[in-house]
Automatic annotation (TrEMBL):
Pfam families in the cross-refs: BPD_transp_2 (PF02653)
A cellular component annotation (GO) from this entry: plasma membrane
Name used for this protein in its record: Branched-chain amino acid transport system permease protein
Species this chain originates from: Lipingzhangella halophila
Region of interest: Disordered: 1-25
Membrane topology summary: Multi-pass membrane protein
PANTHER family: HIGH-AFFINITY BRANCHED-CHAIN AMINO ACID TRANSPORT SYSTEM PERMEASE, HIGH-AFFINITY BRANCHED-CHAIN AMINO ACID TRANSPORT SYSTEM PERMEASE PROTEIN LIVM
Compartments in which it is found: Cell membrane
InterPro entries, A to Z: ABC_transp_permease (IPR001851), LivM-like (IPR043428)
């Protein structure tokens, strides 16, 4: 008669199998990529993006290099605005004012401290913008909805007017023109100036984006989303709501100021007409178009910001439109694209791409008879 009791080795086999099922090894490149530490993933992605920018600017002309650099600093400004609106839930209609502060800070440093290195100039311009964001964030901490939007809109209207009020210091309507060194002399024969400038812009942008990507997935990012979803619940859970909102304002202002400083570095000028209310509204429109709460959405928004205007100019030239109509045609195209995208995909371009990727991704089974849930990548 056979014994019904299992040997210890036989009884341990199911436990070993369960342990193996409980800690599945990564399979495939995607699973191995997701298994890497978050900071390492973001750094590797930034290095890959920098390599793509170098290759792209090596095969394009000067005009296209300038547009690629423009996509970079606009992406930084939109990402900063996305931190404020998409993560902390604060509405701002005056983000262009922080770009004004960054651009004019850079111009004044170049004109009055010409020996200052570029990296120190950018850091100081960012610090001044963060200080401005701190002051405005503290003042507006208790404002919500349309009151906050109105206060930031007043900022966007008032700051460019300072250039006319203090024309001797800020250059008046013509702004400030200056010269900045581009490609180092030792590399000037091998690397065009516009390519070097595009590399500097994108290197700066990618460093900040790595910081923002880690921030959005960290403790501060979770606190911002909690404040955005329900301030009362966030306060009851121990989150200092006012401090989180002011911190979001400071980070957003710093990104806007750095974007303005990079724009001044590219264009070698800072004029009040560049930072009008229309710029602030355009940044908000392309942020919604690209996708709120996503750094990838900032990229699609920046591409739209640069190339929709370019396509509008080409269309106006093809149709031989008047100057007034041609100047407003990009804003009309923004509006048409925004309405169409909101109706078709309310979560923007990045939301549509995420849905498309989830639909095309093959379903994997966890081994227990229920399909595994595809991972989401909110905030990337």
């Amino acid at each position: 008669m056979a014994s019904s009791q299992k040997s210890p080795a036989t009884a341990a086999e199911p436990k070993a199998e369960e342990a193996t099922r409980g800690t599945p090894k990564p399979r495939g490149l995607v699973a191995r990529w997701n298994a890497l530490p978050m900071l390492l993933r973001h750094i590797l992605a930034a290095c890959a993006a920098m390599g793509a920018v170098i290759v792209l600017t090596s095969v394009t002309g000067q005009g296209e290099n300038t547009r690629i650099a423009s996509v970079g600093f606009y992406m930084l400004a939109i990402a900063g605005l996305g931190i404020l609106i998409g993560f902390s839930g604060q509405v701002s209609l005056g983000h262009g004012a922080f770009m004004f502060i960054g651009a004019y800070s850079t111009a004044l440093f170049v004109l009055h401290v010409p020996m200052m290195p570029l990296w120190l100039n950018l850091i100081l311009a960012t610090a001044i913008s963060c200080l401005a964001g701190l002051i405005i964030g503290v003042v507006c901490a208790r404002l919500h909805g349309p009151y906050l939007a109105g206060a930031t809109l007043a900022l966007a209207v008032a700051l460019p007017a300072l250039a006319n009020r203090f024309s001797e210091f800020l250059g008046g309507p013509n702004g400030l023109d200056f010269l900045m060194r581009g490609t180092p002399p030792a590399l000037s024969d091998a690397i065009p100036n516009t390519s070097w400038q595009a590399w500097v812009v994108w290197l700066t942008v990618l460093i900040v984006l790595v910081f923002l990507a880690n921030l959005s997935h960290g403790r501060l990012g979770r606190q911002m989303r909690a404040v955005r979803d329900d301030e009362s619940a966030a306060a009851l859970s121990g989150i200092r709501v006012a401090r989180v909102k002011v911190t979001a304002f400071v980070i957003s202002a710093g990104c806007g100021g750095l974007a303005g400083a990079l724009q001044a570095y590219m264009l070698k000028t800072a004029t009040p007409s560049t930072f009008t209310v229309a710029l602030s509204l355009s940044l908000l429109a392309v942020l919604v178009l690209g996708g709120l709460g996503s750094l990838w959405g900032a990229l699609w928004g920046a591409i739209a910001m640069v190339y929709v205007e370019e396509w509008g100019d080409e269309l106006a030239h093809t149709l031989d439109l008047g100057t007034n109509v041609a100047n407003n045609l990009p804003h009309v195209l923004y509006g048409v694209l925004l309405i169409a995208l909101v109706l078709a995909w309310p979560s923007g371009v990045q939301g549509f791409l995420r849905q498309l990727g989830n639909a095309l991704r093959p379903r994997e089974h966890s081994g227990y008879g229920t399909p595994s849930v595809p991972p989401t990548h909110e905030g990337k």
